[in-house]
């Protein structure tokens, strides 16, 4: 999917415009940590064109001076985006900082769409012509707060999308390793390829910088591994912006059926691990928690179970994900990965017949009666699976407001107990029966 970045000096309203474009899909119902906070990456869609939106302003670059911040923001956008939205604001007029951003963007050969924000009424609209001076052609007047002009802006953005390249037919299971820097993703990629027979390797996408490698495992199963970690960008922006690795992770998640959320045994679990895992969960991908550098720990009888407990406590929302302890260095348990990836992929694609599903549902209700709210009792009529990848179930009830989170969780657990869904999130949607 094309990537669109919003760039501009502080206070022009980048986040507001970002939220407008990302729309409702931005309010995530999930309880995964880090999912709703600090959102800098969101899927969006306009007239059938899907794309990913990044708010480079959300990339925290620490205490760098103001100008450095703008510079690094622009660099990330120039490297990552297919289309850059250069946002300015009509309220403050053209500023020096706008001109500095413009100068940085001149250096890029990526298409730039100039937008003038805070055009909240007709009078202000006349002032947008001043922005021609920036040298990016026709400015598009918008109001993020009022949602004015967003359609025009989106039309202009999608016009610049690269021609869709026909993705070569590849029905192998696609997987990738994601994780913060230094957990050993590149080392694992190399170790996995060293252990298996590589068929072809190719660079996919124009700006995505992903290397796709097809290989055959010992049991003759075939995989496509997507590697965005290996091609690490140089430069200060990338080193400084910890959140930048989230962008890398998102690009990989986007194209994967299964992701190996990679942790570093030596350093333990960090906040950023949770954030990255949250994105994979939210995207509904198959997940295997892969603890690398297992060779570095001095082990006793408790080491493994202690680590496992720590993972379960820190990643409570990933209770469905299997855990594997590996070492890129000693190759420990790397041979188990192909089988695990296959299983998770199978579970992602599993379909349950409605009759069997409803038997499980009715049994569940019989053992744990539905809750009541204000004297009104939830009635559950029936359920049906409407999608795979991830398996998605619609439950028809008398009133969706009566479905408590904890009861939905109970139903999910009953479904998981009855059917093999390990490694895959499950989505449950509650609908009113018509
Ligand atoms: P990435 O940033 O996640 O791609 O991490 P790298 O693959 O570049 O690895 C970071 C560092 O950890 C390198 O110095 C590796 O040699 C080291 N490393 C990676 N995997 C292992 C492992 O399984 N055991 C040990 N002891 N070191 C490892």
UniProtKB/TrEMBL annotation:
<dbReference type="InterPro" id="IPR031166">
    <property type="entry name" value="G_ENGA"/>
</dbReference>
<comment type="function">
    <text>GTPase that plays an essential role in the late steps of ribosome biogenesis.</text>
</comment>
<comment type="subunit">
    <text>Associates with the 50S ribosomal subunit.</text>
</comment>
<dbReference type="InterPro" id="IPR006073">
    <property type="entry name" value="GTP-bd"/>
</dbReference>
<dbReference type="InterPro" id="IPR015946">
    <property type="entry name" value="KH_dom-like_a/b"/>
</dbReference>
<dbReference type="GO" id="GO:0043022">
    <property type="term" value="F:ribosome binding"/>
</dbReference>
<comment type="similarity">
    <text>Belongs to the TRAFAC class TrmE-Era-EngA-EngB-Septin-like GTPase superfamily. EngA (Der) GTPase family.</text>
</comment>
<feature type="binding site">
    <location>
        <begin position="8"/>
        <end position="15"/>
    </location>
    <ligand>
        <name>GTP 1</name>
    </ligand>
</feature>
<feature type="binding site">
    <location>
        <begin position="117"/>
        <end position="120"/>
    </location>
    <ligand>
        <name>GTP 1</name>
    </ligand>
</feature>
<dbReference type="GO" id="GO:0042254">
    <property type="term" value="P:ribosome biogenesis"/>
</dbReference>
<keyword id="KW-0342">GTP-binding</keyword>
<dbReference type="InterPro" id="IPR016484">
    <property type="entry name" value="GTPase_Der"/>
</dbReference>
<protein>
    <recommendedName>
        <fullName>GTPase Der</fullName>
    </recommendedName>
</protein>
<feature type="binding site">
    <location>
        <begin position="179"/>
        <end position="186"/>
    </location>
    <ligand>
        <name>GTP 2</name>
    </ligand>
</feature>
<keyword id="KW-0547">Nucleotide-binding</keyword>
<dbReference type="Pfam" id="PF01926">
    <property type="entry name" value="MMR_HSR1"/>
</dbReference>
<dbReference type="Pfam" id="PF14714">
    <property type="entry name" value="KH_dom-like"/>
</dbReference>
<dbReference type="GO" id="GO:0005525">
    <property type="term" value="F:GTP binding"/>
</dbReference>
<feature type="binding site">
    <location>
        <begin position="227"/>
        <end position="231"/>
    </location>
    <ligand>
        <name>GTP 2</name>
    </ligand>
</feature>
<dbReference type="InterPro" id="IPR032859">
    <property type="entry name" value="KH_dom-like"/>
</dbReference>
<keyword id="KW-0677">Repeat</keyword>
<feature type="binding site">
    <location>
        <begin position="292"/>
        <end position="295"/>
    </location>
    <ligand>
        <name>GTP 2</name>
    </ligand>
</feature>
<dbReference type="InterPro" id="IPR005225">
    <property type="entry name" value="Small_GTP-bd"/>
</dbReference>
<feature type="binding site">
    <location>
        <begin position="55"/>
        <end position="59"/>
    </location>
    <ligand>
        <name>GTP 1</name>
    </ligand>
</feature>
<dbReference type="InterPro" id="IPR027417">
    <property type="entry name" value="P-loop_NTPase"/>
</dbReference>
<keyword id="KW-0690">Ribosome biogenesis</keyword>
């Amino acid at each position: 999917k094309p990537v669109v970045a919003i760039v501009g000096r502080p206070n022009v309203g980048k986040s507001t415009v970002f939220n407008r474009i990302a729309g409702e899909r931005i309010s995530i119902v999930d309880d995964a940590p880090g999912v709703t906070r600090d959102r800098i990456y969101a899927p969006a869609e306009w007239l059938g064109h899907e794309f990913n939106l990044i708010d480079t302003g959300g990339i925290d670059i620490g205490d760098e001076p103001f100008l450095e911040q703008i510079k690094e923001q622009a660099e990330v956008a120039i490297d990552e985006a297919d289309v850059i939205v250069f946002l300015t604001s009509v309220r403050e007029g053209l500023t020096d900082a706008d001109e500095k951003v413009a100068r940085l963007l001149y250096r890029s050969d990526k298409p730039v769409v100039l937008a003038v924000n805070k055009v909240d009424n007709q009078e202000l609209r006349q002032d947008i012509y001043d922005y021609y001076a920036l040298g990016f052609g026709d400015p598009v007047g918008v109001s993020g707060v009022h949602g004015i002009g967003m359609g025009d802006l989106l039309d202009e953005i999608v016009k610049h999308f690269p021609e869709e390249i026909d993705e070569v037919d590849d029905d192998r299971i696609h997987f990738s390793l994601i994780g913060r820097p230094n957990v050993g993703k590149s080392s694992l990629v190399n170790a996995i390829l060293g252990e298996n027979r590589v068929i072809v390797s190719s660079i996919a996408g124009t700006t995505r910088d992903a290397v796709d490698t097809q290989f055959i495992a010992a049991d003759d199963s075939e995989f496509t591994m997507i590697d965005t970690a290996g091609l690490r960008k140089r430069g200060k922006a990338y080193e400084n912006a910890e959140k930048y690795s989230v962008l890398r992770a998102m690009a990989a998640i986007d194209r994967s059926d299964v992701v190996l959320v990679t942790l570093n045994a030596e350093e333990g679990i960090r906040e950023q691990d949770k954030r990255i895992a949250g994105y994979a969960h939210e995207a509904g991908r198959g997940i295997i928690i892969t603890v690398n550098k297992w060779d570095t720990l001095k082990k006793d009888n408790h080491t493994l179970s202690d680590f496992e407990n720590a993972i379960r406590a820190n990643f409570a929302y990933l209770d469905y994900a299997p855990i594997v302890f590996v070492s890129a260095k000693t190759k420990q348990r790397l041979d188990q990965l192909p089988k695990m990836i296959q299983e998770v992929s199978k579970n992602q694609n599993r379909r349950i017949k409605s009759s069997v599903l409803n038997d499980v549902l009715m049994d569940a209700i019989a053992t744990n009666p539905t809750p009541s709210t204000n004297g009104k009792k939830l009635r559950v009529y029936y359920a049906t699976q409407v999608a795979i990848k991830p398996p998605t179930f619609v439950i028809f009830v008398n009133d969706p407001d009566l479905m408590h989170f904890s009861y939905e969780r109970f139903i999910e657990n009953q479904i998981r107990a009855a059917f093999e869904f390990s490694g895959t999130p499950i989505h449950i949607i509650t609908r009113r029966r018509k």
